[in-house]
Each structure stands twice: as structure tokens, then as C-alpha cells.
Amino acid sequence: MNLIEFDGLSSRLDIIKSFSDMSDPEEINALVRTLRPRLRNVIGATIGKGGEGKTTITTNLAYVLAEAENERVRQGKPSKPILYIELDSNGNGRLNLGIRGGEFDDDGLGFFEALTEDKEFKVVQGVRPHLDMVVSGSHNADIPSSVTKLSDKHGIASYLLLAVLLAQISHRYRWILLDFSPGDKMIQRLGLAACTHLVAPMKGSDNAVIEGLGTLATLVRQIRRLNDEVAIVSLIFLGYRRVNDQPTSQLTNLREKMGILLDRAHISREVLVDAFIRDGATTANLARNYGMPAGEFALAAAGQLFNSHTGDRVDRPRDENGRYADPQRAFDLAADYTNVATQVIQLIRQRNQKLQGAEAA
Questions:
Q1: Cα dihedral sign for 97, 197, 176, 9?
Q2: 227: left (phi over 0), alpha (psi -120 to 50) or beta
Q3: Is 0.85 surpassed by the pTM of this model?
Q4: Which of 26, 11, 261, 268 lies closest to 114 in space, CA to CA?
Q5: Helix 161-169 and helix 185-194: axis angle, to 10°?
Q6: Over the stretch 63-98, which tens digit does the pLDDT of each residue have?
Q7: What angle do CA 131, 34, 80 make, to 5 degrees?
Q8: How far apart are CA 161 and CA 225, in angstroms?
Q9: Rounded Cα distance, 59 and 71, in Å
Q10: Is residue 202 within 8 Å of residue 110, measured between CB atoms?
């Protein structure tokens, strides 16, 4: 791993400060039209309530996508890295990817300064092969107050601050994944104004899942003026049982209820992807404790993971009772994330084709 800085980026603050709360709406629309084509590889992961597994989903999707880029290299094809950004102040993505407390963990200070003070944008390169990340942490909690001060003078254009930043570096990445929670409206607005495609983890009881979807749909409607392209592209069901490799009636019945709600909201049922993440909390928690995405953890559990620097075999992970992690369960969970990522990216590519077609027309 190493820390890289993006040089020569235009001042985000100068762009935002060129507007006021009295600016002609068409001026803001012109900026939005400039930004949108550059942000169609930005995927946002959020949901209307906390504790739904969005960071676990996002870090694992980022890892799967990075592995796909590694495969492109093996096939002699051109590749680009994946960028993972967590906007939340809890910084759990650092734990999932095993860098919390390490050399490059600045608790989100670099990101805060780049976003709100126009300092150099710093990225931790090579968290995994073809996977970069922006470190988050307690300093992210200072972002909302800084953006609020901007919005007092410069109106809703202030919510485009992250979009302006990402639009300048998006060409360097195959995909950019934004991980943000429902906890702070300002963080929500920054994330929703920047991303084009939304994925939402769904976990728990029917009522909780349905409530989360309703909240997310409301958030999307509220950001339309600053981002008319953002839309829910997939709902990812997390933590549901499999029997004979098939979902139980709990999930099939829930899917039908969600489908009815989507029909009423004029949202295609395509967002209900067939793939889902099985109930594997014990394996998932152990993977997080070891700072490994599911795919990497499965290799470690099978004794097939090697240190990239020394070439030594990584010790097989054990649970709190000293027992080795079950390799088959780990590989099953990893396969779920791969299948989900495959279907999600297929939907996103299809949607991007439609967006580009509409733009050309």
C-alpha cells in the first residue's frame, strides 16, 4: 500500500462559491449537466435505516470488482482500479479491509480537508490489488457543519461539493463506490448528488425492509434538482436462509411484497436481483474481525491465501474458541457476493447504455 495525491485538481470551493442562494436555477443546471456524464461509474450504497449491512455489502462488492480487474490483467486486457469511499464517521470500512490503526489510517482527516478546504485529495492505493480507498473516521463528522456553512451563502450548489471532486478523478477508476448511511441529511445529500446508481441492502423483518425502501425512495425524490440521473438499481437481500441452495418462503414472500411496492412507485422489478447473501453471520463477523472481505477470507480458511510481500502462507483463521473457520461456509458466502456483484453490474451497464442513448438523442 502507499498514499497517493491527485495533483492539479480544480478548486472545488471556487466552483461552489461562484453560486449563491439567489443564483439562476439554470446556472446550477448547467453545472449538473457537465458533471453527470463523468459520474456514471459512481455507485452509492445506502438505505433508509441503520444496521442493514451496507458497509459489509459495499466493501465486499468493491473487493469482487477489484478481483474482476485482476482477472482482466491475467487475460491481457486493460484494467482500472476500484475506489471505495466511506462517508460515515464510524469508519467501519477500515475494519472490513484491515487497515484500522495502521500506517495510513488518519481517521478521515485527509478526506475532510480535501472536500471542505481544497487540500490535496489523498487515496490509499493498493489496499488490495486494484482496490484503492479513501479513509474515513471521526473527522467525517465535521463535514456536515462545513457544508452547512457553505450552503448558508451559496445555496443548494454546496451539496455538489463531492460530485465536483469525483468528476475530476472518475476517469481513473472503473467504478467508485460510495458508502453512506441515513444518519445525517447533509452526508446523504452529498452522496446522492454524486452517485448515479444506488444499491440498498435489505435485512430483517418485512416492516423494517419496507420502511427502509420508502425512506430511500423519498431521499431520491428530494435530490432530483441536483441529480436527475440517480436511481435505485438493485435491492440486495442480506442474511436470509437457503435450503437446497434456494431461498425460503420468507424471502420469496418478501420479494413479492416489495415488488408490489415497486409497481406502485413505477420502479422496475428488475431491481430485485435473484442473487442474495445467505445467512452467514458467524462467518461474516469472523471475516470482519480478521479484516478480510469474504472472498479473501475463504481463501485463508482453505489455507490458500499467501502474503503478497513474503510469499508465506497466511495462517488459517480461527474463531474465538480456537476452531478453524469452515472453508465451505466461507466459499459459499464469497460466491454469494460474487453472484450479487455480477447481477448488479449487469444492471448498471444496461442503465448506463440507456443514459448515454438518451444523452445522444
A1: negative
A2: beta
A3: yes
A4: 11
A5: 40
A6: 999 999 999 999 999 999 999 999 988 889 999 999
A7: 20
A8: 15
A9: 19
A10: no
